[in-house]
Amino acid sequence: MAAVEVRNGYKYYGSKSNPKIVLNHLNMNVMRGSIYGLLGASGCGKTTLLSCIVGQRCLNGGEVSVLGFKPGQPGSGVPGSRVGFMPQEIALVEEMTVKETIFYFGRIYGLTDERIREKFKQLKDLLQLPPARQMIKECSGGQQRRLSFAAAMIHDPELLILDEPTVGLDPMLREKIWEFLVETTRNSKLAVIITTHYIEEAKQANCIGLMRNGVLLAEDTPTNIMIKFGTQSIEDAFLILSQRQGNEDDLQEMLNNSNQQALPTSALPAEVIDTHEPQAAPEKPPLPYEEPLNENRKRIFFTTKGRIKALMTKNFVQLFRQPSGIIFMLLFPIIQLSCFYLAIGKTPTNLELGVYSGEVSSYSECFDDKLITVYQANDSCHFNKLSCRYIRELGDEVATRKYYSSEEDALKDAKRAVTVGYIHFAHNFSSSIFTVMEDGIHASDGAVDHAELSVHIDMTDQQVAYFMQRKLRDKFSSFMHSVVKDCNVSSAVVELPVQFQEPIYGSPDIEFQQYCAPGVVMTMVFFLATLMTAAVFISERMDGIWDRTLLAGVSATEMLWAHLLTQLIIMALQSFEVIMYIGIVFDTYNKGDTTTLIGLLTLTAFCGMLFGLFISVFCKSHTEANFVATGAFYPMIILCGLLWPLESMPRFLQDLVMVLPFTIPSISARNVIEKGWGITNDKVYNGFLVMAAWTIIFFVLCLIGIRRKA
Ligand SMILES: Nc1ncnc2c1ncn2[C@@H]1O[C@H](COP(=O)(O)OP(=O)(O)OP(=O)(O)O)[C@@H](O)[C@H]1O
């Protein structure tokens, strides 16, 4: 009875209009209880044929029947537990140990732990597996290959497909594996399809298929093939068949690879060379597919829970055994937050400010208390060297003062950027203040001008300039208050007729740091999750682990859920860590509910993770994924109002950015932290809604993409 039947198999890559034909009306029969050696030069289509048999790819034409079913048919167990597949690449998780790998595959195939232990013992002896606790990345290429073979065998499949299992193994072990396969197929219904570059070892197969350019040139027992072509070896027979097709380059390459000595073409008996071209098989009735049985379904569809558990364990092991994984997940947020809190929004220090006062001939006068006086005489308040008093009140807390004996020198240094600018007092500063106070609105323009503090600042460094302006103005205001107080005059005289009362929310000197902290934390957790997820998924796909797990019958949805659950746990931990860190170390206050904040941050990280997944589904390589993530990062940060008020954007842009993932959620987070609003406030829950909407959008897109690829 046939385990695998391929009829008129036709497969191409590329577009329909410009196809690259890989399987060209190929026919193949693999019987139960037999070994089928599939031989052919590199690139002839062996892997493609195997992938169509296991249901990883679909044929463009023709039919395949595997164990009586169409691959992929619900209930067929193909892909799934009825088939064992060892791909060409190693496709194992490097961070797992030998034992964990066997248990991982055993569990996703639905075996009990006891059965896995039994099988492990058996396969360990047979395949000389490395010690149970050895990590895969510490195994040699040959050891990894043997383990990969064991993983394909763990669940006693009915069909075993081995893509070059003996590459890199020593001859003794190769012989042992063949012996095992011969023995097992003889005593059971197991069907084995094996591709190999070592043509001679295929002599032990029950049937050989010689494949070239997408067609099977011959399919028979090794003995019959040699008899048919009158040769002493299978290589010679293959050479003859290849010559019939024309170019023998491919064959030569294969023979070289096989380390066997190729037979010179001149040595071939010319009379056996058949010039007949292989034809498409004549029309045959459709393959008799079986109806899936309920028992079959039961056998195949064991608990999703068990699989998800196995997948999640793998994900955690993979993440936490990589030092970079732990650093990325737990240390990066700390490093990034520390950078932010230490570097952003702090008061500038070590600035140098030029000072020129025309009132003094030497600045030592400014430090002689007897010279700086405010005194009453003739019902008036008189001043001496008030500029000195301001200079002293200014202190070094705003900037280090650098004294100049002329305004020209002060300007020169400011122009050379030695100082951030300079302040200048007129020679009659004190007397002008006296005049302005005495004469009030009748004071002359000259007196008003000379009673002013002149400030000349380098405005190219906007933040420093704004800081200096604010500080000098505030200091001047407090200085004037203290002067009029000494004169027993009401401070209302020097008060601006604008009074900023107690703020409705926040504090009078809200820092830039406080303003942008929620947005910074959100974007940080979002993009950390994005990058990590994209990296994990792309690596998994590139290493073949993703495909191998799918071939074990795990659905794309189950794999997706396992990843989502793993990440959700990590993201919740990360959000908790972030909030605790900024609260305890940087003393950041939160007037609202911490749980609401952790919830919003976890949702943000989850959304970032789905964005990473979305990128990984549509990008083929790490480089492409990094380009997309970096490309998305800057527009999202710039447009979310984190760096500059949204209100300054053109109207159409304001409407557009409102739907971006960070705009409304970072406002919501600020509303919780600064205003203490709760989740029931629409200006808080709308942030959750926006983030949830993006999460759903990315999830649906990922699901569509993954299902399409699967
Ligand atoms: N995804 C793909 N897109 C386009 N072409 C592909 C794809 N996969 C394989 N091919 C091409 O199809 C041909 C057959 O590839 P396949 O991997 O099936 O060969 P093979 O016989 O298994 O080779 P090898 O022994 O080297 O593994 C090759 O020319 C290969 O370049």
UniProtKB/TrEMBL annotation:
Annotated localization: Membrane
Signal sequence segment: none
Transmembrane segments: 515-539, 559-586, 598-619, 625-644, 685-706
GO cellular component: membrane
CDD domains the record matches: ABC_DR_subfamily_A
One annotated GO molecular function: ABC-type transporter activity
Domain of life: Eukaryota
Limits of the ABC transmembrane type-2 domain: 477-709
Keywords, ordered alphabetically: ATP-binding, Membrane, Nucleotide-binding, Transmembrane, Transmembrane helix
Name this protein carries in UniProt: ABC transporter G family member 20
UniProt source species: Drosophila lebanonensis (Fruit fly)
